[in-house]
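TICKET: design request
STATUS: open
ATTACHED STRUCTURE:
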């Protein structure tokens, strides 16, 4: 009887400890960090997914600036993007609340929508190599100036590929250097983003659908 009682208590204690170990990684994975405004959205690879991110921010009530192919000099100009106008292969939209963040206010956060499109890069006069180089310059600038980087992949398996493919190169250019990674489950079926996040100690949130990011961004920019 005593043996059975001891075994029972041991089973309870073991179950509690095992439960704690299973919960803690989940909490660590889903902890949502805070970022500050003003925010700039851009593409890493020139897919249309950056438009999805912009729509999500609008749904979340978050004002932003957008440029598909900014380089460091344009980012340095801050809110308003130096009053640049859209043209062939170059798109700019300014929605930041200028009463709170006047033109020229430095960006505090940049959101990269990751996903390669050869058509999109071609329209902007970019090769894969040129896009990689542009992203590296921006990431380096962000790190030197403490600009919060959010890497987002919502394109699913359609915007993934074999190692060394265009889509994977865009991931390599941004995700390992991000301060926060957000992905859909379909984008992370192979666990690649999970592995990057663990190796670099980057907070990671995985969602079922892109629209789930509305609530995520509300929490990020509270």
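STATUS: resolved
RESOLUTION: sequence designed for all positions
ATTACHED SEQUENCE:
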């Amino acid at each position: 009887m005593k043996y059975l009682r001891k075994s029972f208590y041991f089973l309870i204690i073991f179950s509690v400890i095992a439960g704690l170990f299973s919960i803690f990684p989940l909490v660590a994975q889903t902890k949502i960090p805070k970022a500050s405004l003003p925010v700039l959205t851009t593409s890493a690879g020139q897919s249309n997914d950056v438009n999805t991110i912009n729509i999500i921010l609008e749904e979340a009530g978050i004002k932003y600036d957008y440029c598909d192919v900014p380089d460091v000099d344009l980012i340095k100009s801050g809110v308003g993007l130096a009053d640049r106008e859209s043209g062939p292969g170059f798109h700019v939209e300014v929605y930041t609340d200028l009463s709170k963040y006047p033109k020229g206010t430095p960006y505090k956060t940049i959101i990269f929508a990751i996903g390669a499109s050869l058509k999109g890069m071609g329209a902007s006069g970019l090769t894969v190599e040129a896009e990689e180089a542009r992203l590296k310059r921006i990431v380096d600038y962000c790190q030197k100036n403490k600009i919060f980087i959010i890497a987002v992949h919502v394109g699913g398996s359609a915007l993934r590929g074999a190692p060394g493919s265009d889509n994977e190169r865009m991931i390599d250019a941004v995700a390992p250097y991000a301060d926060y990674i957000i992905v859909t489950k379909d984008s992370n079926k192979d666990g690649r983003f999970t592995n990057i996040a663990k190796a670099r100690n980057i907070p990671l949130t995985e969602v079922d659908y892109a629209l789930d990011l509305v609530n995520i961004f509300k929490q990020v920019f509270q």
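CLOSING REMARK: Confidence is low (pLDDT under 50) at residues 1-28. The first helix runs from residue 2 to 30.
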